[in-house]
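ok, trying the design again with the full structure, not the truncated one.
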């Protein structure tokens, strides 16, 4: 009798579960990650940009805007490895930006978001830039993706560049693990082409769960934009490119709405790192943050981040507590009920942060590495600790350029640890190292644990739990 009553009541019990639950009792949600390249913190309207981004602003209004969201490293390949595996890239042996000479890539034993979702019936695809190994065995179709259409590494790794880069071969365009074309002189079709491919994939998989990873090559230099957006922005070519990316987001969201998929689709918008500021007028802005790409200051590692899941996550929520891209994989795995990778990962489920601005990440701290395993900074709650290291900064006295030729860097030296209170000092100007000994002590204790675990080349420690990347035999 009781069993029969429970069976009768079960649909009503499921129906009355809170819409804000982070795990599902019905159809697993579709997942879309839109990942841009070198888009600065200030290059989205709701983050303060003068460039018009109405679709991204609308996405934020209906979702969660993170104002202190970090990538693991301020460089292409490392940032992508962290996003897709939920693991610090230096733990995986992925450093810097791989190119056509690289003989390694993401190890096949490392599991990506796509590999977590495929056993649960998800169709998986990546359109755009991969950058985790260009040799056939390292390409996306061997890392959990059913489909790949795009380029193997950054769009500037080709001979046709304002700078002399004739040591690069022509940029190759892949379908699956086969080269189908070479891009010699024109990338103006990239944003539209990868958007169209994404929309086609959504339509083909409207009746089953899917994971779409749209990794735009833009606004990485060299900049290209389609004719429909050329000259449309008040911020020159860079602004035109951002407007086209915003259009792409709008096309994706319009497709979801037409197919009645909006409420059952998670949409995540991120950049891989901050702006490449040496390209001046061909680069974005990290204002009010310090420095840009290639540094561990917030201008390099803090990015515009928007998370949208209609009627599940709190619409219009502004989340100011820090989180990092390594947390996305375990959060998605928890939502869909998937298994975590067999090898240890560093990310943690941050699902609660999408429901209430007071909820914080379960992480004790986030560690920011650069170069070959240098622990350069860490974030703990409201605090950021900078360790002694060298970093690049623009030489003073240079006039901005609008021809795609970069300005010159100079190397700067941090000789002693520096401590910043990010909420009151987002530009990292006021060093409070002597005023907060209790904060400093706690952060150093956590850094010692990270150093023993993952190493720190700045002090000659290799780390106990470093894994090797995949290598070409």
């Amino acid at each position: 009798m009781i069993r029969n009553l429970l069976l009768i009541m079960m649909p009503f019990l499921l129906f009355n579960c809170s819409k804000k639950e982070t795990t599902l009792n019905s159809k697993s949600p579709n997942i879309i990650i839109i990942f841009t390249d070198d888009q600065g913190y200030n290059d989205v309207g709701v983050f303060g940009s003068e460039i018009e981004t109405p679709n991204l602003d609308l996405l934020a209004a209906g979702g969660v805007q993170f104002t202190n969201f970090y990538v693991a490293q301020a460089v292409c390949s490392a940032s992508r490895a962290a996003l897709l595996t939920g693991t610090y890239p230096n733990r995986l042996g992925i450093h810097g930006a791989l190119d056509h000479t690289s003989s390694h890539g993401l190890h096949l034993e490392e599991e990506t978001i796509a590999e977590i979702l495929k056993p649960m019936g998800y169709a998986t695809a990546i359109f755009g830039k991969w950058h985790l190994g260009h040799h056939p065995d390292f390409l996306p179709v061997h890392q959990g993706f059913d489909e790949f259409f795009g380029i193997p590494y950054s769009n500037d790794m080709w001979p046709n560049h304002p700078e002399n880069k004739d040591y690069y071969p022509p940029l190759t365009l892949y379908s699956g693990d086969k080269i189908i074309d070479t891009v010699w002189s024109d990338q103006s079709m990239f944003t539209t082409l990868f958007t169209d491919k994404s929309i086609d994939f959504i339509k083909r998989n409207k009746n089953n769960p899917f994971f779409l990873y749209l990794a735009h090559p833009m606004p990485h230099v060299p900049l290209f934009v389609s004719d429909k957006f050329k000259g449309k922005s008040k911020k020159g070519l860079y602004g035109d490119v951002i407007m086209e990316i915003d259009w792409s987001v709008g096309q994706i969201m319009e497709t979801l709405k037409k197919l009645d998929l909006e409420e059952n689709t998670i949409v995540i918008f991120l950049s891989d790192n901050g702006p490449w500021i040496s390209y001046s007028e061909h680069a974005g802005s990290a204002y009010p943050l310090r420095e840009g790409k290639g540094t561990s200051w917030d201008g390099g590692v803090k990015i515009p981040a928007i998370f949208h899941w209609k009627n599940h996550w709190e619409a219009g929520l502004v989340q100011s507590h820090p989180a990092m891209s390594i947390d996305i994989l375990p959060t998605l795995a928890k939502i869909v009920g998937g298994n975590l990778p067999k090898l240890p990962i560093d990310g943690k489920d941050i699902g609660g942060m999408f429901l209430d601005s007071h909820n914080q990440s379960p992480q004790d701290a986030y560690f920011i590495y650069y170069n070959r395993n240098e622990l350069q900074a860490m974030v703990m709650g409201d605090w950021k600790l900078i360790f002694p290291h060298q970093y690049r900064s623009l030489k003073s006295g240079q006039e901005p350029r609008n021809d795609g030729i970069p300005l010159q860097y100079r190397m700067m030296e941090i000789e002693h640890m520096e401590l910043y209170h990010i909420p009151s000092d987002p530009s990292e100007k006021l060093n409070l190292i002597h005023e907060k000994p209790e904060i400093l002590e706690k952060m150093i204790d956590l850094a010692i644990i990270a150093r023993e675990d993952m190493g720190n080349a700045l002090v000659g420690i290799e780390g106990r739990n470093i894994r090797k990347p995949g290598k070409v035999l």
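Keeping the full-length input from now on. The first strand starts at residue 30 and ends at 36.
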